[in-house]
Amino acid sequence: MSSLLIWIVLIPFASAALLGFLHLLLPKQRSLHALYTVSGIAAPFISALMSLAVGWELFNSSDDMMIHAIAFNWITLGDLSVNVAFMADRLTAVMLFFITFIGTLIHIYAAGYMKEEEGYGKFFSFFNLFMGSMLLLVLSDNPIMMFVGWELVGLSSYLLIGFYHQESANMKAANKAFILNRVGDFGFIIGLALLFTALEGTGYTFEAIEANITTLDSSLVAVIAMLLFVGAMGKSAQIPLYVWLPDAMAGPTPVSALIHAATMVTAGVYMVARFAFLYNEVPQVGVYIATIGAVSALFAALIASYQSDIKKILAYSTMSQLGYMFIAVGLGAYSSGIFHVFTHAFFKALLFMGAGAVIIALHHEQNIFKMGGLKKKLPLVYVTMFIATLAISGIPPFAGFFSKDAILAAAFASEHYMIWGMGTLTAMLTAFYMFRLLFIVFFAEGKMDGKLNPLPRTMTWPLVVLALGSTTVGFLGLNEAYGGTNIFSSFIALPDLSHHLSHKSEYLLGMLNVLMAVMGMGLAYRLYAKSAEEPQVNNVWRRAVVNKFYIDEIYDTVIVRTLRHLSVFTDKIIDQKGVDGILHVAVSGYKSAGAAFAFLQNGKVRYYALYILSGLSVLSLLLLNALGGM
Amino acid sequence: MFEQLFLILPMAIVVMGAFVLLLLSKTFSLDKLNLVAVFFLSLSFIIEILRFGTTTVCYSFPEIFGKMYIIDDFSILFDLMFTAGAILTLLINTAYFKSRNYYNGEYFALILFSVFGMMILAHSNELVTAFIALEIASLSVFALVGYHKYNKVSSEAMMKYMILGSMTGAFFILGTAFIYGAVGSTNLEDIAAYVNVPAEKDLVLVLIGGIFIMVTILFKMGAVPFHSWVVDVYQGAPFPVTMFMASTFKIALFAIALRLSLIDFASLNIVWSEILQVITVLTLIGGSFLAITQKSIKRMLAGSSVVHSGYMLIAYSSIGLGSDMAAPAIMFYLISYFLSAAGAFGILSFIATGSKKMMTYEDFKGFSERRPYLSAMMAIFMLSLSGFPSTIGFLGKFYIFTSAIESGQILLAGLGIVTAFISVYYYFKLIAMMYFYPSTDQQKKFPFDFSGLLIGVMAMMVIWGGVGTSLIPFIPGANGLIDIAKQAIDSLQNVL
Amino acid sequence: MMEITLQHYLVLSTILFAIGLIGVMRRKNLLLLFFATEILLNAVNIAFAAISSYYGDLTGQMFAFFIIAVAASEVAVGLGLLVLWYKRTGKIDLDAMTSMRG
């Protein structure tokens, strides 16, 4: 069983290497497409099967069961001994399940979406690289390996955002994502370093850290927890490190669906849940995290309500939902947070894939105001998108209702009413912007002439599977108030900080959420169901929101330009005049000394013999000197 | 009797191979001769690798030769390096041999003879045996240097090397005579016993003899001020020979040097260390002076090989000051230098196959556009030679400097680090030339053949050793290599 | 009649060695240069033989034979090259060999 863990990670990497190699060798060969497709899809599929086996094993054993697998010893330097080792507990099993399952579906979808593109093999190579890295991240048994996976998903995200690298705007987006993630990673690695220094080599695995965490000073733990969260901020697009996510939509849509909605961006949430034992030590940091999450959720929902690019709307929506997840894990409701990660993966992947289907059908049109009336033309896409929209808006019995309800209930129960209020407001806005999208694209009268692109079956069937998932997975988390037993949270067995809430208040909260969602829905219906014109940007508020509160511009002015001026200054003045000057003097001095030395190298053997003899004489003198001292 | 024969079988195979090659030289084609040579070397290599770590220390034909010829893990590890080095030299240069008209069967025989000499040198437990072994190896290398006999530069290099080589060879035997006079025996163990018993004895003769022997060894290593031949000879010799000398032959000298300082002069080492420190400082500074002024890549690598000898001398002088790390550090450095330098020279000879130019820095302008893979490998070797982290060269330097600090030679370690920085200048200059300048020539189609593949493998090993993992079972990573080196050193110290 | 002791042999050997060294440095003629290296080795041979008889131990004399063999092979290689060099350039002047320097 334990060697399965190694194979789960290894197979996607092997497939990535194989495809990459083939693509490099025969870049223009279209006849290899079948091979690329089969190998590209087989890798996540095999991993998914093996993940199921691992999950089944864990399901049938006690809840603190862990499967370990040590691949090899990576570094041994004195006390520091780091193994490349994998560990699976129930949290991992959940992550594994949806990453590989949804990953496989999106790979199938991508086979249809990307089939006309150049670099088909390269795409699948990168895609499998991402799968392997993500699995490495969730399976690693120590934070160091986790960091390796963390960086590798960043790298594959960079490669895939910049997949259409002919356009410089896409490369800029890729760079932006990469650089902002580095800012976060910097916090993460400093946090890890601090953690290991504080633990004084008592072990590097999660288990060892957990065993020794109580020995640390709690203010130090708070600093470490904050620094680790900075990493999560970058990866999971929270304020203030979120600006890369909307731009990351420059990549192909399957990439947005898999990486920037379903899996990679949730890595931050996973990390916090993985370090639950550490965050439980310092609940005040948790409140801070929850606050950041709530602000991000509301902020992103506001922006999403005014966007007109279909993928940007979904991107801000992702950020908003990630905010929910951080509310949950911040307040110690880890299983609710992971549950939302789980359900969100289904409906958000579905939304992105539906959006991708629309985009392909409309010949790469992304502005929703230029779409319209697609209800008749793309019925399957319409139905599945409708289900996903219901799910994300939190309409029962679709998946989103249960997970979002659990989070808001937790916020209410822990008496952080401000956070709860922001979350509830966001729930309304979510319904509003999602139905706005749905109504404009599918209901309002069409403005597109001409034929639609036909959609291949590989692009539509995954939608159906995910729609089924979006409808049903919510019942896994059905809690007592609604007559369930909350299978999910009892399975995952995370150290939640529990707050009790009476059944009556749970009903009330649930009803309030539904009411909010219906209000948002109604508002969207009134404004956009019949006809949709791109609104005029006429007042200050609207201009501010449409321009995303000018955050990009502010960052550009305050940080980017300042840095550029500073670097120009260091380059032109300090480096060229100062350092280079000194260096030039040093190098030329050394070189002229060398030239003097080379003068001795005159090519005459007799002189060479003389040098040898003089060397011998010097040695003899030294020996004499040494003997005299003896 | 047969047991005894089995002990010397690896060397016997090599020398038999040499004779077979002489016999076949007129009938076989160059490719086949190369294969025959590689076959004999590989056979020897395999026997040695099976034997490593399994034999206890023993002597070959003790009733005839006494304790002249020792077999221990230390010498077996060196044998492995020699045979591996020769195999790589032959295989990487397959194409080069065919592109030149002056190669024939005797060339391969000479390579095998010199490997034979080096093996005997690593095994010799007695000074005169060591001298004869050194002469066998050197004479073969002399002939190899001048192998392009219609080329004036090649002959000139051989003549210079030979005259200086036989002069310093005489120093070795003179030193031996001094020690023989004092001790009455030339066996290393007898000398050690003589030196280490603190009776009222005069050690001056032994010390003077030691100085003379050391001069010869330092000369062949290319330590300043005995270095003057290095640059000229490396330039004049054909590429495969330069590669062979820079990598394999240099290892052989450290074999005898390590054996001498670990067994023989153990109690005189304090005196040695003072003298060696002076030589080390001169070698580090002088070597980088030599390297930094060169325009031809081959001469630059020659100059830098002097600097690398300097690094190893740092650790060598640390031995006497009681650093346990020093001897394994030297062995590790030898492996790392062997990989990187042989790779770099291999690429030069690979390029030289197609042209007959001298190859200066200028010629490498825009090389990455013409040959992206080769230039990437060249960059790896340059990074490793300069001691860039994540290459094997970094770990090599790391161990060397660790040993220096361990033995309290902080200043020497500091100087080593300074020269490592200087070396960045002349190594990275080549990388800059390859990557930051537009190509002057048209892109040509080069064949990608076996030699290229081998060079690629070596580049991988350089990275492999630097990352320091044992990712693939049975293939040791860097930490495995240092363990092997320690095991070999231990076998040597168990003798007494 | 003074008795000839080990000292005398060793002094002779040393003088010969010095002569050899000076020869290597002073001579430009390649042929004489090889003579000089022969002198170096043979000076050591004398020392070996003398020390050997002083100790009454035959190994030293045996070594002398080995050294003679080594010296002969060195000269064989050297003279081979010398002949080649002479055929091509018509000179056996060492100082003409300076095409590589710097």
Give your account of this protein's structure.
The complex is a heterotrimer of chains A (630), B (496) and C (102). Chain A is mainly α and 630 residues long. Chain A is 73% helix and 3% strand. In chain A, strand 1 and strand 2 form a beta hairpin. In chain A, helix 2 runs antiparallel to helix 3 and helix 11 runs antiparallel to helix 15. Chain A starts with a helix and ends with a helix. Chain B is mainly alpha-helical and 496 residues long. Chain B is built from 22 helices and two strands. The longest helix of chain B has 32 residues. The mean pLDDT of chain B is 85. With 102 residues, chain C is mainly alpha-helical. Chain C has one domain: Helix Hairpins. In chain C, 76% of the residues lie in helices and 0% in strands. Chain C contains three helices and no strands. In chain C, helix 2 packs antiparallel against helix 3. The mean pLDDT of chain C is 87. Classes of the chains: A mainly alpha (630), B mainly alpha (496), C mainly alpha (102). Chains in contact: A-B, A-C, B-C. At the B-C interface, helix 8, helix 9 and helix 12 of B face helix 1, helix 2 and helix 3 of C.
The helix content of chain C is over 70%
Termini separation of chain B comes to: 26 Å
The major pleated sheet of chain C works out as: none
Mean pLDDT across every amino acid position of chain B: 85
Helix content of chain B: over 70%
Number of strands of chain B: 2
Ranges of chain B where pLDDT stays below 50 over 5 or more residues in a row are none
What's the CATH first level of chain C? Mainly Alpha
List low-confidence stretches of chain C: none
Amino-to-carboxy terminus distance of chain C:
57 Å
| Tally of separate domains of chain C | 1
